[in-house]
Amino acid sequence: MTDAELQAWVETLSRKRFGRTFRHRAVFNHRLRTTAGRYMLRDHRIEVNPRYLEVYGRETVEGILLHELCHYHLHLSGKGYRHRDRDFRHWLAKVGGLSVAPPLDPRPVSNPVRYRVICQGCRKIYFRKRKIDVNRYVCGSCRGPLRLEPADFGRE
């Protein structure tokens, strides 16, 4: 689906479910990682995470769009557009939008823990992704000397 198709879809949803026109832009944002969609207060743009369309399909994305359209129309009409506001909750239930998006599968960890730093004094263990010079640092708890060793766990 392209941005133009998304724009037409949002305009249609807005007319059918809210009885109002959507006069701003709706786009896919490929950089969204932790959110399904968002409404931008400054320029009234709606952004959607395209992975939700790939993973869950049109029905879920429609629920996300209805959620964002609730923010949009309530904000422009000067009513309570935040999640905690009564107006928002009422409209969201009325139009059937999603209150919480389903989770996406977590992406694989690109840089797992590779080193263990152990305090020689209190035996506290610190985990690090990057190698450090243990001669330049001391334990944060007891000021004891540190020893660096590879973390062998988690490797399959």
Description of the molecule:
- The mean pLDDT is 93.
- A hairpin with a 5-residue loop joins strand 4 and strand 5.
- Helix 1 crosses helix 3 and helix 3 runs antiparallel to helix 4.
- The protein has 156 residues and is an alpha+beta fold.
- The chain is 33% helix and 15% strand.
- The chain starts with a helix and ends in a 6-residue tail after the last strand.
- The longest helix has 19 residues.
- The strands form 2 sheets. A 3-stranded mixed β-sheet has the order 1-3-2.
Structural class: alpha+beta
Oligomerization status of the protein chains: single chain
Q: Would you report the number of β strands?
A: 6
Total DSSP helices: 4
The strand line-up of the biggest sheet is: 1-3-2
* Average pLDDT: 93
Beta-strand residue percentage:
5-15%
**N-to-C terminal Cα separation, in Å?**
38 Å
Low-confidence stretches: none
The residue fraction in helices comes out at 25-40%
For the largest beta-sheet, the strand count, sense and barrel status come to: 3 strands, mixed
Radius of gyration: 24 Å
The outline comes out as: elongated
Order of helices and strands: HEEEHHHEEE
